[in-house]
Amino acid sequence: MIAVPDLPHFIAAFNALSVVCIVLGWRFIRQGRRIAHRNAMVGALVFSGLFLAVYVVYHLNAGVARFGGEGVIRQAYFAFLIGHVILAIVITPLVPLTVWRAVRGRFELHRQIARWTLPVWLYVGVSGVFVYVMAIHLFPYQA
């Protein structure tokens, strides 16, 4: 059985895997490989969905995560975290809208919004892994 304190590792792994899929999807579409692009982006959606499910379960059971760093690193961490959270909120409707346009075959509109969705989704994914490393490995909270 997986314990609640172990869930952040899964959250970070799913986040990192979604980033890999997004990068591959971007590379595939740049090469004109539409099927490979679609498959990579479906992978990104699956891993992002798993991330979200585990994230919600973790926070419902563990409450608010705590950061153990002090001083300047604490201020820098929370400044970084605020940007991550704001863009995570922004990306939430962008991903389904981008996918919806592709599924409906509205590829010009898909392309227009994907130019915004891709960098924001990548930033949120990478910064999420960074937050995990900072809070869990580098500066864990010591009760």
- Overall, the morphology is elongated
Helical fraction = over 70%
- Whole-number radius of gyration? 17 Å
Helix and strand composition category: mainly alpha
CATH class: Mainly Alpha
Assigned CATH superfamily: Cytochrome c oxidase, subunit III, four-helix bundle
Query: How many domains?
Result: 1
Q: Kindly state the number of beta strands.
A: 0
What would the average pLDDT be, to the nearest integer? 96
Beta content comes to under 5%
* CATH fold description: Four Helix Bundle (Hemerythrin (Met), subunit A)
Largest sheet: none
CATH architecture call: Up-down Bundle
Number of helical regions: 4
Distance between the termini: 25 Å
Element string (H = helix, E = strand)? HHHH
Low-confidence stretches: none
Give an account of the 3D structure.
The chain is mostly helical. The protein has one domain (4-138): Up-down Bundle (Four Helix Bundle (Hemerythrin (Met), subunit A)), CATH 1.20.120. 82% of the residues lie in helices and 0% in strands.
Write the layout of secondary structure elements.
Elements: H1 7-30, H2 34-62, H3 72-103, H4 107-138
Keywords, separated by commas or semicolons:
Four Helix Bundle (Hemerythrin (Met), subunit A), 143 residues, 4 helices, mainly alpha
Quick description:
With 143 residues, this protein is mainly alpha-helical.
